[in-house]
Amino acid sequence: MRDLSGIVKAYDIRGVVGQDLDTDVVRDIGAAFTRLVGGPAVVIGHDMRESSPRLAAAFAEGVTGQGIDVVHIGLASTDMLYYASGQLELPSAMFTASHNPAEYNGIKLCRSGAAPVGQDSGLSEIQELVTHGVPEFLGAKGTISERDMLRGYASCLRELVDIDDIGPLRIVVDAGNGMGGHTVPPVFEGTPVEVVPLYFELDGTFPNHVANPLEPANIVDLQEKVLAVGADAGIAFDGDADRCYVVDADAEPVSPSAITALIATRELTKEPGASIIHNLITSRAVPEIVTEHGGHPVRTRVGHSFIKQTMAETGAIFGGEHSAHYYFRDFWRADSGMLAALHVLAAFGGQRESLSTMMAEYSRYVASGEINSTVGDQQDRMRAIAETFRDRNGARIDELDGLTVELANGSWFNVRPSNTEPLLRLNVEAADTDTMSALRDEVLEVIRG
Protein backbone atom coordinates (compact mmCIF):
# COMPACT_ATOMS: atom_id res chain seq x y z
CA MET A 1 0.00 0.00 0.00
CA ARG A 2 1.19 3.51 -0.86
CA ASP A 3 0.44 6.54 1.30
CA LEU A 4 -0.22 9.61 -0.83
CA SER A 5 -1.65 11.76 1.97
CA GLY A 6 1.45 13.94 2.08
CA ILE A 7 1.41 14.85 -1.62
CA VAL A 8 -2.26 15.02 -2.59
CA LYS A 9 -3.22 18.66 -2.09
CA ALA A 10 -6.52 20.47 -2.57
CA TYR A 11 -5.89 21.23 -6.25
CA ASP A 12 -2.94 19.12 -7.37
CA ILE A 13 -0.26 16.58 -6.42
CA ARG A 14 3.00 18.06 -5.17
CA GLY A 15 6.07 16.99 -3.19
CA VAL A 16 9.85 16.69 -2.98
CA VAL A 17 11.32 14.57 -5.78
CA GLY A 18 12.98 11.40 -4.51
CA GLN A 19 11.39 11.81 -1.10
CA ASP A 20 7.67 12.14 -1.83
CA LEU A 21 7.57 11.70 -5.60
CA ASP A 22 9.41 9.06 -7.61
CA THR A 23 8.81 7.31 -10.92
CA ASP A 24 7.04 4.34 -9.33
CA VAL A 25 4.50 6.52 -7.53
CA VAL A 26 3.95 8.67 -10.61
CA ARG A 27 3.48 5.60 -12.81
CA ASP A 28 0.73 4.40 -10.48
CA ILE A 29 -0.86 7.85 -10.45
CA GLY A 30 -0.90 7.82 -14.26
CA ALA A 31 -2.65 4.46 -14.25
CA ALA A 32 -5.16 5.60 -11.63
CA PHE A 33 -5.87 8.85 -13.50
CA THR A 34 -6.55 6.83 -16.65
CA ARG A 35 -9.00 4.65 -14.73
CA LEU A 36 -10.75 7.82 -13.57
CA VAL A 37 -11.07 9.62 -16.92
CA GLY A 38 -10.98 6.84 -19.52
CA GLY A 39 -9.84 7.19 -23.14
CA PRO A 40 -9.11 7.56 -25.93
CA ALA A 41 -5.93 9.45 -24.96
CA VAL A 42 -4.27 11.65 -22.33
CA VAL A 43 -2.25 14.79 -23.07
CA ILE A 44 1.00 15.21 -21.12
CA GLY A 45 3.15 18.34 -20.84
CA HIS A 46 5.97 19.35 -18.52
CA ASP A 47 7.97 22.35 -17.34
CA MET A 48 11.75 22.93 -17.34
CA ARG A 49 12.57 21.24 -14.01
CA GLU A 50 15.27 18.57 -14.26
CA SER A 51 12.94 15.88 -12.92
CA SER A 52 9.97 16.76 -15.13
CA PRO A 53 10.82 14.73 -18.29
CA ARG A 54 11.41 11.48 -16.40
CA LEU A 55 8.34 11.89 -14.22
CA ALA A 56 6.25 12.68 -17.30
CA ALA A 57 7.65 9.54 -18.95
CA ALA A 58 6.71 7.42 -15.93
CA PHE A 59 3.19 8.86 -15.96
CA ALA A 60 2.94 8.01 -19.67
CA GLU A 61 3.90 4.41 -18.85
CA GLY A 62 1.04 4.28 -16.36
CA VAL A 63 -1.40 5.61 -18.94
CA THR A 64 -0.33 3.34 -21.81
CA GLY A 65 -0.21 0.39 -19.42
CA GLN A 66 -3.98 0.81 -19.08
CA GLY A 67 -4.46 0.59 -22.85
CA ILE A 68 -4.84 4.34 -23.41
CA ASP A 69 -2.78 6.46 -25.81
CA VAL A 70 -0.61 9.44 -24.84
CA VAL A 71 -0.24 12.70 -26.73
CA HIS A 72 3.01 14.25 -25.50
CA ILE A 73 3.35 18.02 -26.09
CA GLY A 74 6.75 18.35 -24.38
CA LEU A 75 7.79 21.65 -22.80
CA ALA A 76 4.72 23.70 -21.91
CA SER A 77 3.34 26.33 -19.60
CA THR A 78 0.33 25.22 -17.60
CA ASP A 79 -2.04 27.37 -19.63
CA MET A 80 -0.58 25.87 -22.82
CA LEU A 81 -1.46 22.45 -21.39
CA TYR A 82 -5.01 23.74 -20.75
CA TYR A 83 -5.13 24.92 -24.36
CA ALA A 84 -4.14 21.43 -25.56
CA SER A 85 -6.76 19.80 -23.32
CA GLY A 86 -9.45 22.12 -24.63
CA GLN A 87 -8.43 22.11 -28.27
CA LEU A 88 -7.94 18.33 -28.46
CA GLU A 89 -10.87 17.60 -26.10
CA LEU A 90 -8.73 15.25 -24.02
CA PRO A 91 -7.86 14.90 -20.32
CA SER A 92 -4.38 16.06 -19.47
CA ALA A 93 -1.53 16.09 -16.97
CA MET A 94 0.96 18.91 -16.44
CA PHE A 95 4.22 18.24 -14.61
CA THR A 96 5.20 21.33 -12.64
CA ALA A 97 5.59 22.58 -9.09
CA SER A 98 4.77 26.12 -10.23
CA HIS A 99 6.65 28.57 -7.98
CA ASN A 100 8.00 26.00 -5.50
CA PRO A 101 11.81 25.54 -5.13
CA ALA A 102 13.81 23.29 -7.43
CA GLU A 103 13.60 20.14 -5.31
CA TYR A 104 9.81 20.03 -5.75
CA ASN A 105 7.66 18.76 -8.57
CA GLY A 106 4.00 18.00 -9.02
CA ILE A 107 1.11 17.12 -11.31
CA LYS A 108 -1.84 19.30 -12.28
CA LEU A 109 -4.60 17.14 -13.69
CA CYS A 110 -7.69 18.03 -15.70
CA ARG A 111 -10.45 16.30 -17.58
CA SER A 112 -11.30 16.94 -21.21
CA GLY A 113 -11.84 20.63 -21.91
CA ALA A 114 -9.44 21.67 -19.11
CA ALA A 115 -12.02 20.86 -16.40
CA PRO A 116 -10.07 20.76 -13.11
CA VAL A 117 -9.42 17.64 -11.07
CA GLY A 118 -9.23 18.61 -7.41
CA GLN A 119 -9.64 16.90 -4.06
CA ASP A 120 -13.43 16.79 -4.45
CA SER A 121 -13.47 16.11 -8.18
CA GLY A 122 -11.17 13.13 -8.62
CA LEU A 123 -7.95 13.44 -6.61
CA SER A 124 -9.40 11.53 -3.65
CA GLU A 125 -10.42 8.69 -5.99
CA ILE A 126 -6.93 8.62 -7.52
CA GLN A 127 -5.41 8.52 -4.03
CA GLU A 128 -7.70 5.64 -3.08
CA LEU A 129 -6.81 3.66 -6.21
CA VAL A 130 -3.06 4.10 -5.76
CA THR A 131 -3.26 3.30 -2.04
CA HIS A 132 -4.94 -0.03 -2.63
CA GLY A 133 -3.33 -0.89 -5.96
CA VAL A 134 -4.47 -0.01 -9.47
CA PRO A 135 -5.99 -3.05 -11.23
CA GLU A 136 -3.74 -4.52 -13.91
CA PHE A 137 -4.87 -4.07 -17.51
CA LEU A 138 -4.34 -7.22 -19.58
CA GLY A 139 -5.02 -5.83 -23.05
CA ALA A 140 -2.70 -4.15 -25.54
CA LYS A 141 -0.75 -1.13 -24.37
CA GLY A 142 -1.49 2.34 -25.66
CA THR A 143 0.84 4.28 -27.92
CA ILE A 144 2.78 7.53 -27.42
CA SER A 145 2.82 10.28 -30.04
CA GLU A 146 4.32 13.77 -29.97
CA ARG A 147 2.51 16.95 -30.94
CA ASP A 148 3.68 20.57 -31.11
CA MET A 149 1.01 22.88 -29.65
CA LEU A 150 3.08 26.04 -29.11
CA ARG A 151 2.13 27.90 -32.30
CA GLY A 152 -1.51 26.97 -31.95
CA TYR A 153 -1.49 28.19 -28.36
CA ALA A 154 0.02 31.53 -29.37
CA SER A 155 -2.52 31.95 -32.19
CA CYS A 156 -5.40 31.13 -29.86
CA LEU A 157 -4.40 33.84 -27.38
CA ARG A 158 -3.87 36.41 -30.13
CA GLU A 159 -7.35 35.67 -31.45
CA LEU A 160 -8.85 36.26 -28.00
CA VAL A 161 -6.96 39.54 -27.46
CA ASP A 162 -5.82 41.52 -30.50
CA ILE A 163 -2.73 43.65 -29.81
CA ASP A 164 -1.63 44.15 -33.42
CA ASP A 165 -3.00 47.70 -33.68
CA ILE A 166 -1.88 49.12 -30.33
CA GLY A 167 0.78 51.80 -30.03
CA PRO A 168 4.41 50.64 -29.69
CA LEU A 169 5.35 49.56 -26.17
CA ARG A 170 8.60 48.55 -24.49
CA ILE A 171 7.91 45.88 -21.87
CA VAL A 172 10.38 44.08 -19.63
CA VAL A 173 9.35 40.47 -19.09
CA ASP A 174 10.89 38.46 -16.25
CA ALA A 175 10.32 34.77 -16.93
CA GLY A 176 12.21 33.75 -13.78
CA ASN A 177 13.95 30.97 -15.79
CA GLY A 178 10.49 29.42 -16.04
CA MET A 179 8.14 28.54 -18.86
CA GLY A 180 7.44 32.14 -19.82
CA GLY A 181 10.81 32.04 -21.54
CA HIS A 182 9.38 29.37 -23.84
CA THR A 183 5.94 30.85 -24.51
CA VAL A 184 6.47 34.64 -24.58
CA PRO A 185 8.50 34.80 -27.86
CA PRO A 186 5.87 33.19 -30.13
CA VAL A 187 3.00 35.07 -28.48
CA PHE A 188 4.59 38.51 -29.06
CA GLU A 189 6.28 37.78 -32.38
CA GLY A 190 5.34 40.40 -34.97
CA THR A 191 3.46 42.65 -32.53
CA PRO A 192 4.13 46.33 -31.70
CA VAL A 193 5.42 45.21 -28.29
CA GLU A 194 9.18 45.28 -27.82
CA VAL A 195 9.98 42.61 -25.24
CA VAL A 196 13.08 43.17 -23.12
CA PRO A 197 13.78 39.62 -21.86
CA LEU A 198 14.94 38.89 -18.34
CA TYR A 199 15.88 35.34 -17.31
CA PHE A 200 14.36 33.62 -20.36
CA GLU A 201 16.82 30.72 -20.13
CA LEU A 202 14.91 27.63 -19.02
CA ASP A 203 16.51 26.46 -15.78
CA GLY A 204 14.63 24.51 -13.14
CA THR A 205 17.25 25.34 -10.51
CA PHE A 206 16.09 28.99 -10.59
CA PRO A 207 19.60 30.48 -10.42
CA ASN A 208 18.43 34.11 -10.27
CA HIS A 209 15.40 34.12 -7.99
CA VAL A 210 12.44 31.93 -7.07
CA ALA A 211 9.79 32.17 -9.79
CA ASN A 212 7.12 33.52 -7.46
CA PRO A 213 6.36 37.15 -8.37
CA LEU A 214 3.98 37.67 -5.46
CA GLU A 215 6.97 37.81 -3.11
CA PRO A 216 8.42 41.36 -3.26
CA ALA A 217 12.02 40.13 -3.24
CA ASN A 218 11.43 38.24 -6.48
CA ILE A 219 10.44 41.29 -8.54
CA VAL A 220 13.37 43.51 -7.54
CA ASP A 221 15.33 42.61 -10.69
CA LEU A 222 12.28 43.35 -12.83
CA GLN A 223 11.77 46.72 -11.16
CA GLU A 224 15.42 47.67 -11.63
CA LYS A 225 15.36 46.64 -15.30
CA VAL A 226 12.17 48.62 -16.00
CA LEU A 227 13.80 51.76 -14.65
CA ALA A 228 17.14 51.07 -16.35
CA VAL A 229 15.71 50.70 -19.87
CA GLY A 230 12.87 53.22 -19.50
CA ALA A 231 10.22 50.60 -20.14
CA ASP A 232 6.51 51.36 -20.23
CA ALA A 233 5.82 48.46 -17.86
CA GLY A 234 7.13 45.16 -16.56
CA ILE A 235 5.58 41.71 -16.37
CA ALA A 236 6.74 38.77 -14.23
CA PHE A 237 5.54 35.19 -14.66
CA ASP A 238 5.71 32.38 -12.15
CA GLY A 239 7.46 29.07 -12.88
CA ASP A 240 4.71 27.50 -14.98
CA ALA A 241 3.58 30.89 -16.37
CA ASP A 242 -0.07 30.58 -15.41
CA ARG A 243 0.19 33.74 -13.25
CA CYS A 244 1.43 37.18 -14.20
CA TYR A 245 2.35 40.16 -12.06
CA VAL A 246 2.60 43.70 -13.42
CA VAL A 247 4.66 46.76 -12.47
CA ASP A 248 4.27 50.24 -14.01
CA ALA A 249 6.89 52.53 -15.57
CA ASP A 250 7.91 53.73 -12.11
CA ALA A 251 8.44 50.07 -11.10
CA GLU A 252 5.47 50.23 -8.72
CA PRO A 253 3.47 46.99 -8.42
CA VAL A 254 -0.04 46.94 -9.85
CA SER A 255 -2.54 45.14 -7.62
CA PRO A 256 -3.92 41.88 -9.07
CA SER A 257 -7.34 43.13 -7.92
CA ALA A 258 -6.94 46.19 -10.13
CA ILE A 259 -5.98 43.92 -13.03
CA THR A 260 -9.12 41.87 -12.33
CA ALA A 261 -11.28 44.99 -12.43
CA LEU A 262 -9.67 46.20 -15.66
CA ILE A 263 -10.14 42.91 -17.49
CA ALA A 264 -13.68 42.61 -16.15
CA THR A 265 -14.65 45.94 -17.70
CA ARG A 266 -13.10 44.89 -21.03
CA GLU A 267 -14.98 41.59 -21.03
CA LEU A 268 -18.23 43.31 -20.09
CA THR A 269 -18.02 45.46 -23.22
CA LYS A 270 -18.21 42.24 -25.22
CA GLU A 271 -21.07 40.78 -23.16
CA PRO A 272 -22.99 43.44 -21.19
CA GLY A 273 -24.64 42.18 -18.02
CA ALA A 274 -22.44 39.08 -17.75
CA SER A 275 -21.34 37.57 -14.45
CA ILE A 276 -17.81 38.17 -13.17
CA ILE A 277 -16.25 35.93 -10.50
CA HIS A 278 -14.06 37.30 -7.71
CA ASN A 279 -12.82 35.46 -4.66
CA LEU A 280 -13.52 36.79 -1.19
CA ILE A 281 -9.99 38.22 -0.73
CA THR A 282 -10.16 40.33 -3.89
CA SER A 283 -10.49 44.07 -3.29
CA ARG A 284 -14.01 45.37 -2.70
CA ALA A 285 -13.31 47.68 -5.66
CA VAL A 286 -13.82 44.71 -7.99
CA PRO A 287 -17.53 44.06 -7.29
CA GLU A 288 -18.14 47.81 -7.14
CA ILE A 289 -16.61 48.39 -10.58
CA VAL A 290 -18.30 45.33 -12.07
CA THR A 291 -21.68 46.60 -10.86
CA GLU A 292 -20.96 50.13 -12.14
CA HIS A 293 -20.28 48.66 -15.59
CA GLY A 294 -23.52 46.71 -15.63
CA GLY A 295 -22.07 43.34 -14.69
CA HIS A 296 -23.07 40.84 -12.03
CA PRO A 297 -20.31 40.19 -9.46
CA VAL A 298 -20.25 36.70 -7.94
CA ARG A 299 -18.20 36.06 -4.79
CA THR A 300 -16.55 32.69 -4.24
CA ARG A 301 -13.98 30.87 -2.15
CA VAL A 302 -10.25 31.04 -2.83
CA GLY A 303 -8.93 28.36 -5.20
CA HIS A 304 -9.10 27.54 -8.89
CA SER A 305 -11.47 24.58 -8.53
CA PHE A 306 -14.04 26.78 -6.78
CA ILE A 307 -13.60 29.57 -9.34
CA LYS A 308 -13.98 27.22 -12.31
CA GLN A 309 -16.96 25.42 -10.80
CA THR A 310 -18.74 28.70 -10.09
CA MET A 311 -17.95 29.96 -13.58
CA ALA A 312 -19.56 26.83 -15.02
CA GLU A 313 -22.62 27.20 -12.80
CA THR A 314 -23.15 30.91 -13.53
CA GLY A 315 -21.88 31.18 -17.09
CA ALA A 316 -19.46 33.88 -15.91
CA ILE A 317 -17.32 35.40 -18.64
CA PHE A 318 -14.28 36.08 -16.44
CA GLY A 319 -12.89 35.52 -12.96
CA GLY A 320 -9.93 36.86 -10.98
CA GLU A 321 -8.09 36.05 -7.77
CA HIS A 322 -5.84 38.05 -5.46
CA SER A 323 -3.04 35.58 -6.25
CA ALA A 324 -2.83 36.84 -9.87
CA HIS A 325 -4.74 33.93 -11.36
CA TYR A 326 -7.15 35.06 -14.09
CA TYR A 327 -9.82 32.81 -15.61
CA PHE A 328 -11.48 33.18 -19.01
CA ARG A 329 -14.69 31.51 -20.13
CA ASP A 330 -13.54 31.61 -23.75
CA PHE A 331 -10.32 29.82 -22.76
CA TRP A 332 -12.18 26.79 -21.39
CA ARG A 333 -12.69 28.64 -18.08
CA ALA A 334 -8.98 28.07 -17.43
CA ASP A 335 -6.49 30.50 -15.95
CA SER A 336 -3.86 32.11 -18.13
CA GLY A 337 -1.28 34.65 -17.03
CA MET A 338 -0.35 35.29 -20.66
CA LEU A 339 -3.93 36.10 -21.64
CA ALA A 340 -4.22 38.50 -18.70
CA ALA A 341 -0.99 40.20 -19.76
CA LEU A 342 -2.33 40.65 -23.29
CA HIS A 343 -5.47 42.29 -21.91
CA VAL A 344 -3.41 44.76 -19.89
CA LEU A 345 -1.21 45.63 -22.87
CA ALA A 346 -4.20 45.97 -25.21
CA ALA A 347 -5.89 48.42 -22.83
CA PHE A 348 -2.66 50.29 -22.08
CA GLY A 349 -1.37 50.43 -25.65
CA GLY A 350 -4.67 51.71 -26.96
CA GLN A 351 -4.46 55.08 -25.15
CA ARG A 352 -1.90 57.74 -24.23
CA GLU A 353 -1.94 57.67 -20.44
CA SER A 354 0.75 55.99 -18.36
CA LEU A 355 -0.06 52.60 -16.92
CA SER A 356 -0.18 54.04 -13.39
CA THR A 357 -2.68 56.71 -14.48
CA MET A 358 -4.81 54.17 -16.33
CA MET A 359 -4.90 51.80 -13.36
CA ALA A 360 -5.66 54.49 -10.74
CA GLU A 361 -9.41 54.25 -11.33
CA TYR A 362 -9.32 50.53 -10.49
CA SER A 363 -7.39 50.96 -7.21
CA ARG A 364 -9.70 52.49 -4.61
CA TYR A 365 -8.54 51.03 -1.30
CA VAL A 366 -5.41 50.17 0.68
CA ALA A 367 -4.63 46.48 1.21
CA SER A 368 -2.22 44.75 3.57
CA GLY A 369 -1.28 41.95 1.26
CA GLU A 370 -1.35 38.40 2.63
CA ILE A 371 0.34 38.07 6.03
CA ASN A 372 1.13 34.58 7.33
CA SER A 373 1.41 33.74 11.03
CA THR A 374 2.51 30.42 12.52
CA VAL A 375 0.10 29.34 15.27
CA GLY A 376 -0.15 26.34 17.56
CA ASP A 377 -3.93 25.87 17.23
CA GLN A 378 -5.59 27.34 14.15
CA GLN A 379 -9.17 26.83 15.31
CA ASP A 380 -8.50 28.28 18.76
CA ARG A 381 -7.14 31.48 17.19
CA MET A 382 -10.06 31.64 14.74
CA ARG A 383 -12.51 31.43 17.64
CA ALA A 384 -10.61 34.16 19.46
CA ILE A 385 -10.88 36.45 16.44
CA ALA A 386 -14.61 35.79 16.12
CA GLU A 387 -15.16 36.54 19.80
CA THR A 388 -13.14 39.76 19.56
CA PHE A 389 -15.14 41.19 16.67
CA ARG A 390 -18.57 39.57 17.04
CA ASP A 391 -19.94 42.34 19.26
CA ARG A 392 -18.16 45.17 17.41
CA ASN A 393 -20.74 47.78 16.44
CA GLY A 394 -22.01 47.11 12.94
CA ALA A 395 -19.67 44.18 12.29
CA ARG A 396 -20.77 41.44 9.92
CA ILE A 397 -19.12 38.02 10.00
CA ASP A 398 -19.32 35.21 7.46
CA GLU A 399 -17.52 31.87 7.17
CA LEU A 400 -17.57 31.17 3.43
CA ASP A 401 -13.80 30.60 3.50
CA GLY A 402 -12.18 31.03 6.90
CA LEU A 403 -13.52 34.09 8.71
CA THR A 404 -14.42 37.36 6.97
CA VAL A 405 -15.28 40.39 9.13
CA GLU A 406 -16.76 43.55 7.60
CA LEU A 407 -16.81 46.64 9.85
CA ALA A 408 -19.21 49.56 9.81
CA ASN A 409 -16.58 51.92 8.37
CA GLY A 410 -16.19 49.74 5.26
CA SER A 411 -12.95 48.08 6.38
CA TRP A 412 -12.76 44.31 6.25
CA PHE A 413 -10.41 41.42 6.85
CA ASN A 414 -10.28 37.72 6.15
CA VAL A 415 -8.39 35.05 8.11
CA ARG A 416 -8.00 31.57 6.59
CA PRO A 417 -6.17 28.54 7.93
CA SER A 418 -3.64 26.93 5.61
CA ASN A 419 -4.55 23.40 4.52
CA THR A 420 -0.95 22.20 4.59
CA GLU A 421 0.91 24.24 7.22
CA PRO A 422 0.22 25.51 10.79
CA LEU A 423 -0.45 28.99 9.43
CA LEU A 424 -3.21 31.57 9.48
CA ARG A 425 -3.36 33.83 6.44
CA LEU A 426 -4.58 37.40 7.00
CA ASN A 427 -5.76 39.93 4.40
CA VAL A 428 -6.95 43.41 5.40
CA GLU A 429 -8.40 46.26 3.34
CA ALA A 430 -9.51 49.78 4.27
CA ALA A 431 -10.07 53.22 2.80
CA ASP A 432 -6.68 54.60 3.87
CA THR A 433 -3.30 53.44 5.15
CA ASP A 434 -3.80 54.45 8.78
CA THR A 435 -7.14 52.65 9.09
CA MET A 436 -5.77 49.55 7.38
CA SER A 437 -2.66 49.49 9.56
CA ALA A 438 -4.63 49.85 12.79
CA LEU A 439 -7.00 47.03 11.88
CA ARG A 440 -4.15 44.83 10.66
CA ASP A 441 -2.23 45.28 13.90
CA GLU A 442 -5.30 44.59 16.04
CA VAL A 443 -6.06 41.34 14.25
CA LEU A 444 -2.41 40.22 14.30
CA GLU A 445 -2.31 40.80 18.07
CA VAL A 446 -5.19 38.36 18.47
CA ILE A 447 -3.68 35.83 16.07
CA ARG A 448 -0.23 35.89 17.61
CA GLY A 449 -1.45 36.27 21.16
TrEMBL record:
It comes from the Bacteria. Pfam families: PGM_PMM_I (PF02878), PGM_PMM_II (PF02879), PGM_PMM_III (PF02880), PGM_PMM_IV (PF00408). Its EC number is 5.4.2.8. Its cofactor is Mg(2+). It is an enzyme of class 5 (isomerase). PANTHER family: PHOSPHOMANNOMUTASE (PTHR43771:SF1). Belongs to the phosphohexose mutase family. This is Phosphomannomutase.
